[in-house]
């Protein structure tokens, strides 16, 4: 298929207590200095792609190893099945009466279920996507063998209890089966999936191929800066819970004035199958059940995950990190405040997370006098928003300490980002950037090349300000894997995750050039880096930033921490002994197609 031309400029060239905690605002102290030469961290968060989905055929520089579909022999460089293709074979299963994360297998698929359409593919939703064959081999397939790189595709299922089943206790072999037995959006979606039509097929097994020209900007960044092939979404499931984990290292929960309480009955998850169905959940989805009391073994779905965690050869974080009588949000609900600070209505007909009172990285930075901002596409200066705005991707709007104080002024839009990047003194020490909806890369309503172009444009603006560039680290990732298959190791940290691998690229004069880091990371590693760089303590007694850095057996398995559970702080991705001024070294002019 033809490739879209990407011609953006980079630089001058083309291119442990388990009790929920409440935070109370504290007065800022004198600003603290950074412990490294990095005085500005910019975190760009796109959406819904796993590491293998984007880096399936990436080949590392300098003779390094990278863990992906190509290195494992699952596929060949041209994207066709490789000698170990069978390792990725997907299974069918039987799960009736009670939820299981390891249902009984009933045999491998002969061929993948045909991918299905969703709302933005240009085809009617919930029908077979005839651009793809009905007889795809049972395993990963190259998306761009059938559609162009800039084409809209279907949107794989990606929710909490579903991802635990896809994981299948580490077998990673139930991605299509889970999608086709449950569907996307939940029973109250529009249109609502049914056991007879879940609007899902085998789209979760798709990947892009850097060897044939896909993801050229991300490939360039990997070649010239540092990437991780062991970075993960922290929570099984979708956007909302993972964005909240990114700012708290923890889970949000249903509460009244900071005290845990019980949600409306129609908002509590029940993944037990409906009578007469194979795995079609009783109560689930973004306008259905999304809260879980994981400390109560009588709650539906809880025993299956708890039994698995108990079988592990190590004790998980805070013994699962489940506080008593606490209902945690594990799927997408709206947040407690509108963008302008107006409280959102609550109750059984409003699928809204009550305002949160747990500590955030924003509170911690403000207390230390370290500047920060959250930049959201589609947010206007007056607090209004456009269709480019993603409310659940603006997580600090869920917190009382932010939205009822002057700190809400730190939640701004793209115009403010352009202004701040032009003047190093205006740029905050810590910046989180969520692109406009159409440029965030979410399958169905956006594309990967649009996300690449956004990333390249932002890097270019930073590098065109030499004073800013020489002090900056730009971290490029996605919020979660979007339900796409990934072959990488997952470390169960607690009841909630980790989830699948996702990309992480570190772009900085101090990034280790062309380096692939195997240290185990997740989104909370970003919090650990910020805390290490500015001398902050962990956010709370139960947040994951309390976990130690991994101890690695580099000779046998560099991907699995010997001291599980453990997550790194990203420092291995930098070389602070050597400063690079590569404004004159970067060259993306050459055939970026």
Automatic annotation (TrEMBL):
Alphabetized UniProt keyword annotations: Hydrolase, Signal
GO molecular function: phosphoric ester hydrolase activity
Alphabetized InterPro entries for the sequence: Alkaline_phosphatase_core_sf, Phosphoesterase
Superkingdom per UniProt: Bacteria
Keyword check for Signal: yes
Database matches in Pfam families: Phosphoesterase
Signal peptide: 1-25
Stretches for region Disordered: 257-282
Protein name: Alkaline phosphatase family protein
């Amino acid at each position: 298929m033809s490739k879209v031309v990407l011609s953006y400029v980079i630089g001058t060239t083309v291119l442990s207590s388990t009790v929920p905690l409440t935070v109370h605002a504290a007065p800022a102290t004198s600003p603290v200095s950074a412990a490294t030469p990095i005085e500005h961290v910019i975190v760009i968060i796109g959406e819904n792609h796993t590491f293998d989905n984007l880096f399936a055929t990436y080949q590392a520089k300098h003779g390094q190893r990278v863990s992906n579909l190509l290195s494992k022999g699952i596929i060949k460089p041209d994207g066709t099945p490789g000698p170990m293709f069978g390792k990725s074979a997907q299974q069918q299963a039987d799960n009736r009466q009670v939820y299981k994360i390891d249902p009984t297998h009933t045999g491998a698929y002969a061929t993948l279920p045909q991918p299905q359409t969703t709302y933005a593919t240009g085809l009617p939703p919930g029908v077979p996507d005839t651009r793809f064959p009905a007889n795809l081999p049972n395993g990963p397939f190259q998306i761009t063998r059938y559609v162009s790189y800039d084409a809209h595709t279907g949107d794989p299922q990606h929710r909490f209890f579903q991802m635990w089943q896809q994981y299948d206790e580490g077998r990673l072999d139930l991605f299509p089966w889970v999608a086709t037995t449950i569907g996307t959006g939940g029973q109250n979606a529009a249109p609502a999936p049914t056991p007879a039509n879940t609007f899902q097929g085998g789209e979760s097994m798709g990947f892009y191929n850097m060897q044939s020209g896909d993801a050229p900007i991300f490939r360039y960044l990997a070649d010239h800066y540092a990437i991780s092939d062991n970075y993960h979404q922290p929570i099984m499931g979708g956007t909302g819970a993972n964005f909240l984990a990114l700012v708290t290292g923890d889970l949000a929960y249903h509460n009244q004035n900071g005290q845990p309480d019980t949600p409306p009955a129609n908002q509590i998850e029940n993944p037990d199958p409906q009578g007469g169905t194979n795995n079609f959940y009783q109560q689930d989805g973004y306008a259905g059940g999304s809260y879980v009391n994981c400390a109560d073994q009588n709650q539906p779905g809880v025993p299956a995950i708890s039994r698995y965690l108990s079988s592990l050869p190590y004790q998980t974080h805070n013994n699962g990190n489940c506080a008593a009588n606490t209902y945690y949000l594990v799927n997408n609900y709206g947040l407690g405040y509108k963008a302008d600070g107006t409280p959102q209505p609550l109750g059984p007909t409003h699928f809204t997370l009550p305002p949160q009172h747990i500590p955030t990285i924003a509170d911690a930075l403000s207390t230390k006098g370290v500047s920060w901002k959250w930049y959201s596409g589609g947010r206007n200066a007056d607090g209004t928003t456009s269709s480019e705005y993603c409310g659940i991707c603006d997580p600090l709007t869920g917190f009382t300490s932010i939205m009822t104080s002057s700190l809400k002024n730190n939640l701004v839009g793209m115009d403010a980002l352009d202004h701040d990047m032009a003047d190093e003194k205006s740029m905050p020490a810590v910046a989180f950037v969520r692109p406009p909806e159409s440029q965030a890369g979410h399958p169905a309503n956006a594309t990967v090349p649009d996300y690449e172009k956004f990333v390249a444009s932002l890097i270019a603006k930073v590098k065109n300000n030499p004073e800013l560039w020489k002090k900056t680290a730009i971290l490029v990732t996605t919020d979660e894997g979007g339900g796409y298959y990934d072959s990488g190791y997952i470390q169960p940290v607690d009841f909630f995750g980790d989830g699948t691998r996702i990309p992480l690229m570190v772009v900085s004069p101090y990034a280790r050039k062309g380096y692939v880091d195997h240290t185990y990371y997740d989104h909370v590693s970003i919090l650990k880096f910020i805390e290490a760089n500015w001398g902050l303590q962990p956010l709370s007694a139960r947040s994951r930033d309390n976990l130690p850095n991994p101890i690695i057996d580099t000779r046998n398995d560099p991907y699995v921490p010997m001291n599980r559970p453990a997550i790194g702080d990203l420092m291995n991705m930098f070389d602070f002994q050597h400063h690079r001024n590569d404004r004159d070294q970067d060259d993306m002019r050459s055939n970026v197609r």
